[in-house]
Model the fold of this input.
Amino acid sequence: MSDAIGIASTGLTLHRKWLDAVSDNIANVNTVTATTEEAFRARYIIAEAGAGDSGVYVAGAARGSAEGRMTFEPDHPLADEGGYVRYPDIDMASQMGQLIMAQRGYQVNAAVVDRAKVMYESGLQIGK
Done:
């Protein structure tokens, strides 16, 4: 029972970092750059299981393509001589699905911490 809060806290940390990455990706889905520059590169969190029952950890972050997608917008101030600008190659539907999964994971781990706290308090009450 004493490990429940520790394990859940590793899950909270992982899901918070995942939420941060997804929200950053969503915020930059419409970031325009010139065709001579790199597009915003989406960030993806890499999770790794800890040894034994020690929880889960962030092993690192992967970056999306800097190539992005070219869009014809001749009136845009950043458009090149052909009328193209560069947008990030981020799929909004996929990011929203990732956001929902990360939120649910965070909620579940927070519930585990809350229930473990209630169990500890009940154990203290029994000892009185």
Q: What stands out?
A: The CA atoms of residues 13 and 57 lie 8 Å apart. The chain has one domain: 2-126.
